[in-house]
Design goal:
- By secondary structure, this protein is an alpha/beta fold.
- The chain has five domains: about 10-90, no CATH class; about 150-330, P-loop containing nucleotide triphosphate hydrolases (Rossmann fold, 3-Layer(aba) Sandwich), CATH 3.40.50.300; about 340-385 and about 445-580, P-loop containing nucleotide triphosphate hydrolases (Rossmann fold, 3-Layer(aba) Sandwich), CATH 3.40.50.300; about 385-445, no CATH class; about 590-670, Ribosomal protein S10 (Alpha-Beta Plaits), CATH 3.30.70.
- Helix content is about 30%, strand content about 20%.
- It contains 18 helices and 29 strands.
- A seven-stranded parallel sheet has the order 10-11-9-12-13-8-14, with helices on both faces. It has a six-stranded parallel sheet with strand order 15-25-24-16-23-22, sandwiched between helices. It has a five-stranded antiparallel sheet with strand order 3-2-5-4-7.
- A hairpin with a 6-residue loop joins β19 and β20 (about 425).
- α1 packs across α2 (about 110-115).
- The longest helix is centred in the C-terminal third of the chain and has 18 residues, at about 600-620.
Length: about 675
């Protein structure tokens, strides 16, 4: 169906006298530097939340959202008019307060937040809303499901009591081992909520999990469930948004950005709530979907259900202290045993096998046996590319990105050396910038080399690789996972995206190559993320039939985190890590904000970052200021970066300290 495009009237560009109008509005324009004021034409009922057309300067008219309506005449003489979009769409107060709270909490402007809240080409969705016809949803026969286990049924009854017999905010943690059937509990609870006329939002951490989750919910409920995420095709995205905007959606599945939509839930479920993908790291505002879900539920009254086999320490601490209802599933739904875990010490292996090989003998033989028996394997290596660095044979120089000063990674798929920070690609055979030699060696294997090694040593294995390079195109991740689920491939080789909540009944073996990768990152959550990654990956094995096996290859087998993961001992890990967090005053015992300070002149940056840090510490005695220090990656593109870490007992103390920011530095704030 072709959607006719609605356009603003020609008068939008004409400045008129303020005296000609009796009503005015302030508007949020996505990414605008400030609030702008426009006149409201007498014929239109524009109110707070109205979507309007405005024109900034001589730019093309664009969509804005009204933040305030007033009869107070502005101080300037001439003014342009704001015209409502032809759909007449108005965001309600719940959406507007969420937008403004997000901006305040995450130290962003409402204009920056609005850019994140609205999908690209939002005006086209409103155009489609005008011509939308009532859609007839045909019910499908529901799939027959096995009876709930005793644990699942007990958990469901507790959650239904929270959902139906209490008012206001309710929160719960469903802490279930991998394979314990948390998704079945989600589906039963969602079905009960829908039957009672309530709205349900289901969040998953990765795009790759959305199709699996949507398929399971659709089969269970008997109708198609709308899905929202950035990799959807344009027609599917438009269809989902139209259901939300028209109020016809009662259940939505999505990734973190779905929490920003104007879909008002009575029940929100965050599956794999521990996952770092729920945190927006790349652009302002640096929101966390879990934090927004809790805010909205407390503000408007709803049940928040957080589910995980490895809960974040903040969530676990809140549950143990009684702030959240703590519900535990201790057994797998199929009653099969947790997988057997074997640790392979690669330091010892290097003495007995070719050091260039990435696969140990144990893992290689286990993959071969698994494939020969008609079963499947998942192999994780959390390092993209073919080789992690190129080293000059003559002078020993590592070929770094000339802009970002970090080692370039050889990607065979891209036939060149790629910078993982600025994205620049350089020829593999370029001469050494230090000595001019053309002779080099590739050091440190990565996932493409592992793929090549498996194909060479286990030719009967049908391997598919899943990483950022193979899933760049729309629908690629969904296709890979679908093909693997249908057993078109016997080995799924991937980075950390293969570890997140996938349920593959045919997987009997999980292998982790380089189990300690990521442990040395200067981040107080590095240990937690390593434990989650190893535990979640291990949990993919033997979910249906038992007898699962996990092989962890590591250079550091005595690391306590690896030992806890091997023993499936979350409680032991949490106790140890929470004690360390308490001692160091880190979350959940404090609020922390990472401040990134950037400038094109390194000397200017170092000097003024020190001044900024000292000023913060002097004016805010209740805030602990650590740094500044050079960032882990000190230069990206042409910008040099330094980091500050702020600790306080509350987020309000940090926000108050950062009210006034220096204008001569680029400042990015990430509040945790």
């Amino acid at each position: 169906m072709r959607i006719p495009r609605t356009l603003p009237p020609e008068e939008i560009s004409k400045p008129l006298s303020c005296k000609a109008f009796s009503r005015f509005c302030e508007v949020y324009v996505p990414l605008a530097p400030m609030l702008f004021t426009y006149a409201i034409p007498a014929d239109f009922n524009i109110q707070r939340g109205s979507v309007v057309w405005v024109q900034l300067g001589h730019r093309k008219p664009e969509i804005a959202v009204v933040s305030k309506v007033s009869e107070e005449v502005p101080a300037f003489e001439k003014i342009k008019q704001a015209f409502p979009h032809a759909s007449g769409y108005v965001f309600d107060e719940r959406f507007m307060q969420k937008l403004e709270w997000t901006s305040k909490y995450y130290l962003a402007t409402p204009m920056q937040s609005l850019n994140a809240f609205l999908p690209k080409d939002f005006e086209k969705y409103l155009d489609a809303l005008i011509v939308e016809k009532e859609e007839i949803v045909s019910a499908k026969p529901q799939k027959e499901n096995p009876p709930l286990t005793v644990e699942q049924n007990a958990a469901l009854e507790e959650l239904k009591e929270l959902l139906f017999q209490q008012n206001g905010f309710r929160g719960a943690l469903l802490h279930g081992v991998t394979g314990s059937g948390k998704t079945r509990v989600y589906m039963e609870l969602a079905s009960s909520a829908l039957a009672a006329g309530k709205n349900v939002l289901i969040l998953v951490p990765e795009i790759g999990l959305a199709p699996q989750t949507a398929s399971r919910f659709s089969e269970f409920l008997g109708f198609s469930v709308p899905v929202i995420h950035s990799a959807l095709s344009a027609p599917k995205k438009r269809s989902a948004w139209l259901k939300i905007l028209s109020g016809k959606a009662h259940i939505v599945i999505g990734t973190r950005s779905a929490i920003l939509s104007p879909f008002h839930f009575d029940l929100v479920i965050l599956d794999e709530e521990h996952d770092s993908s729920y945190k927006q790291e790349d652009s302002t505002p640096n929101y966390h979907a879990r934090t927004l879900a809790l805010y909205e539920a407390k503000k408007w009254g709803a049940l928040v259900l957080l589910g995980s086999a490895t809960p974040s320490l903040e969530t676990f601490s809140a549950a143990k202290s009684g702030k959240l209802k703590y519900i535990v599933l201790t057994h797998r739904a199929t009653e099969v045993e947790m997988p057997q875990v074997t640790i392979v010490d690669m330091k010892k292996k290097m003495r007995t096998q070719d050091s260039s090989l990435l696969l140990s003998t144990e893992l290689r033989e286990a993959i071969s046996k698994t494939v020969d028996e008609g079963n499947q394997a998942i192999i994780l290596m959390n390092r993209r590319g073919y080789s992690k660095s190129r080293i000059c044979v003559e002078c020993g120089n590592t070929f770094n990105c000339p802009v970002c000063k970090v080692p370039l990674v050889y990607h065979r798929q891209h036939s060149g050396l790629l910078c993982h920070y600025c994205g620049r690609l350089f020829p593999l055979y370029a001469k050494c910038p230090e000595c001019g030699s053309s002779e080099f060696e590739l050091a440190g294997g990565a996932i493409e080399k592992l793929e090549e090694e498996i194909a060479e040593w286990i030719p009967q294995a049908k391997v598919v690789r899943m990483d950022r390079d193979t899933t760049a195109n729309v629908g690629a991740a969904e296709q890979i996972l679908s093909d693997f689920r249908e057993r078109k491939f016997s080995v799924l080789l991937g980075t950390q995206i293969v570890a997140k909540g996938h349920d593959f009944p045919g997987v009997q073996l999980v292998g982790v190559v380089g189990a300690e990768i990521g442990a040395g990152v200067p981040d107080f959550r590095a240990g937690e993320r390593l434990f989650e990654l190893l535990s979640q990956t291990s949990g993919r094995a033997g979910r249906a039939n038992g007898n699962g096996r996990v092989i962890l290859q590591t250079n550091n087998p005595d690391d306590p985190i690896i030992q806890f993961a091997t023993a499936h001992d979350y409680l032991g890990f949490a106790e140890r890590e929470l004690a360390a967090r308490f001692e160091a005053h880190y979350p959940p015992y404090a609020k922390v904000a990472e401040i990134r300070i950037g400038h094109r002149d390194a000397e200017f940056l170092h000097q003024h970052a020190e001044i900024f840090a000292n000023d913060l510490a002097t004016k805010n005695p209740t805030v602990e200021v650590l740094g500044p220090v050079d960032a882990y990656i000190p230069q990206v593109g042409k910008i040099f970066w330094m980091n500050l870490l702020l600790k306080a007992n509350s987020a309000a103390e940090i926000r108050n300290a950062l009210k006034e920011l220096p204008s001569d530095l680029e400042i990015r704030c990430n509040l945790n």
